[in-house]
Amino acid sequence: MSQTAVPIAPPKTGEKEKTESRELRDRGYLVICWNDPVNLMVYVTHVFQTVFGWPKERAEHHMMQVHQAGKSLLARETFEKAEHYVHQLQGYGLNATMEREE
Amino acid sequence: MKFIGSPKNGIGPASFIFQISKQEVEWLLGVLKFYPQLDSTYHHITEGAADEIKAEQKWLEEAMAQRRAEHLGKLEKFFSGPGRFRLESPDQFRFTLTSEQMEWLLQVLNDVRVGCWVKLGRPELEPSPPKKLSAHDARTLSALELSGFFQMVLLGAYEGPGPV
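Above: the input entities. Below: the structure tokens describing the complete assembly.
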């Protein structure tokens, strides 16, 4: 795992218990990373490690999914957390979006 | 340019030392002059029905614009300071980056890489980049390739020094 893979924590809001039960119900937003021919594979792996705090193996798995399948589902989250992750990923220049789960 | 090592401080590497040639310093500073390349229109919060979340799309664009402004400030501060590159020999310098500096420099370099790619018309880059280019496009392609080179060196530092 990268020595600097410090996860960028999503924002914390409200009362904990209330938020947790609501989060479970509201986790209907998907964070998806889409393929492009310009972002370097090793860079994409690094970004996944940094943003999500994943070990290198998991980050590489998703990077390969993006590369081979054209996209990878990175997270299923609440609206706010999904938005947070998309901001982080796009800040790194990755083509990431949030989609409402059908 | 190559990664030399990280000073030991007992809790992991807090900084990264690089050796860089005089020519590479010129290339690095030249590439950084291309920043920023991406504009707000590049960023999309969703592939789906964007009309439903117009406010979020606007917020994303504002957040990216703010990030670009912060990075420009950091670039100016970092590279305009005296002694950033310490002379080691007539043709070699050393310079040091903290973990935090590594991260924003990676983002800056990637903005140049992706932005240049967009400006070239989003071509396929493998197995080879486009061959018929104007002089302007050739400079853009050079910046794209050089930013990738510097990204690879920075990312390689996270893996530790290579074989001597």
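Note for the figure: The interface with chain B takes residues 2-4, 32, 34, 36-40, 42-43, 46, 50, 83, 86-87, 90-93, 97-100 of chain A (CB under 8 Å).
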